[in-house]
Amino acid sequence: MKRALGVCYYPEHWPEAIWAEDAARMVETGISWVRIGEFAWSRLEPSFGDLQFDWLDRAIGVLGSAGLKVILGTPTATPPRWMLDRHPDMLAWDAEGRPRGFGSRRHYDFSYDGYREECARIVDILARRYGANPHIAAWQTDNEYDCHDTALSYSPAAERAFQNWLAETYGTIDALNAAWGNVFWSMEYDHFEQIELPNLTVTEPNPSHVMAFRRFSSDMVVKFNKVQVGLIRAQTDAPIIHNYMGRVTAFDHYDVGADLDIASWDSYPIGFLSDRLEEAPEHKQHYLRQGDPDFQAFHHDLYRAVGKGRWWVMEQQPGPVNWAPYNPAPLPGMARLWAWEAFAHGAETVTYFRWRQAPFAQEQMHAGLLRPDSEAAPGLAEAAQVAQELEDAPDVSVTQAPVALVFDYASQWAWETQPQGADFDYFRLCFEMYRGLRKLGLSIDVLPPDCANLSGYKIVLAPGLLQLSDALREALATFDGQAVLGPRTNTKTAELTIPTSMGPGIAGLDATIAFTESVPPSELIPLTRGGVLVKWFEHLEGDAEVVESVVDGRPAMVRADRVHYLAGWPDETALDRILRDLCEVAGLVTLSPPDGLRLRDTGAHRFYINYNPHEVEFDGLLIGAADVTWRPL
Ligand code: GAL
User: Fold this and answer.
1) What is the mean pLDDT of residues 227-249?
2) Phi, psi of 163 (to 5 degrees)
3) What is the rounded CA–CA span in Å between residue 344 and residue 14?
4) Domains of the chain by range and CATH?
5) CA nearest ligand 1 atom 11, residue
6) Given 38, 118, 159, 315, which residue is catalytic?
7) 315 catalytic per annotation
8) Whether the CB of 38 sits within 6 Å of ligand 1
């Protein structure tokens, strides 16, 4: 497949007189896709029913006739001001019970029927008008679901929808009371209409109540997206895409992805390192202008899974952003490196955000490929270089990785609801394991929790997985590689209660969690073979073979044949040893690339991606600061 570059463009921000020149310059840069329209509702329909599509017809015509393929976004992330007058109850409410007002974006509640219907109306009009347009080669639904924490809402509309969802899910109020254990603290309900949202309670609400609310909230996002997809699909065969984000876990992306053709995500490496990752100050300083060396790759692999193999970067950071606490400029080379890293992980298209920096409004300090005065910003030349390199691109076809990591959204909600230790975070646990594997030079596939086929993998990790699905349980039964489950895997019911069998309930493994303790960062639990457990330790009973133990002799990791259960959160040293041992048993060659150098194997090439601000040497190659190179395997 031919890999391509794209750019995000807002014709409504610029005089029509410069559209053609912009389009020609995009083509000259080597860009072939352009995404438009996703925030343009106030110009498409300045007042209810007053449809103004002529300008969009012309914009699509100008871009398309320049040779660009257009991705048309539905404008539903930015309802215009008049919408609020029509639907005063459409706003989402925060957990403190305050409506989230107009004046930025994403001011809507996923469960408010009136707004979903307005979205269906405008999407239907767009789909009918442009479904057969030869220049529209892909569609994007909305923009970044849950961006600015918008998937959870505590509005009256959400409460009504939640009650309906509960009635459908549980059938009878007695079933709900039993499932949640509402006998505790006399929380039993007589009917569904009594059930409020789990905010503003005196002390913590019942975790089962919160978990149900999290599942409901995710389902509302899925439903919202599905309506748009259905209407677009009725008019076109062009692929339908959504642009997800980094470390956003409030809805089940696999569920949303099931209705879409391609997954995409918006990659802002420097912003993410600064405001989305818990790392030591030295790490943040070292990677200040490059971004974390694993964060992008983790999401590339995750969204490849969400997209069932097909994925893009829909927005790629080109220069300083505006929204992190500090917004340094990328090192020269990074706008190229990020794109190549994405291609090495199988991205079909990498689209830079945005063409020209806007001189007005919230993002006026956010770089584009062009400056506000239309002069080239530093990202432009790097994009042009990538485009040039793509001409004789290496084979970046994806091949199955030797190692897989299961990632699950419900597990994130579960442990957020019931962390038990202040720093127990599911994403973090998975990310540390992912990083540990990458430090050994390995390429990784992410798998959904209902994955039924593990064949071909030498190692599968499923840390912190709330429940083992039947599919995964069966796949593990015949798996001939090494599996590591835990900590916390399969230790609760779907309702977030303790199963009477106790956890972890793994077939053939004689191990039961007698009790669990969480400990603060000051308390380390040393392991016999070196390294420590941090944050979390489950005390196991049973006769399973012990492969790791704490210094007082209690088991830290046990196994039955190829399936291991890890009873705590290993620090970097312990994790590195555990992973190296597993690789050895599994017959997987591990490497020790220098810090900050990451490897990624495609079907035919090995990519060397240097996130360091200095040159490194490895495998007989000199790889410059912020540089990426590749050679045949
Ligand atoms: C993304 C968003 C874009 C723009 C960008 C700025 O989250 O989709 O519209 O706001 O961030 O970095």
Assistant:
1) 98
2) -60, -40
3) 35
4) 4-150+222-392 (3.20.20.80), 403-586 (3.40.50.880), 597-632 (no CATH)
5) 266
6) 315
7) yes
8) no
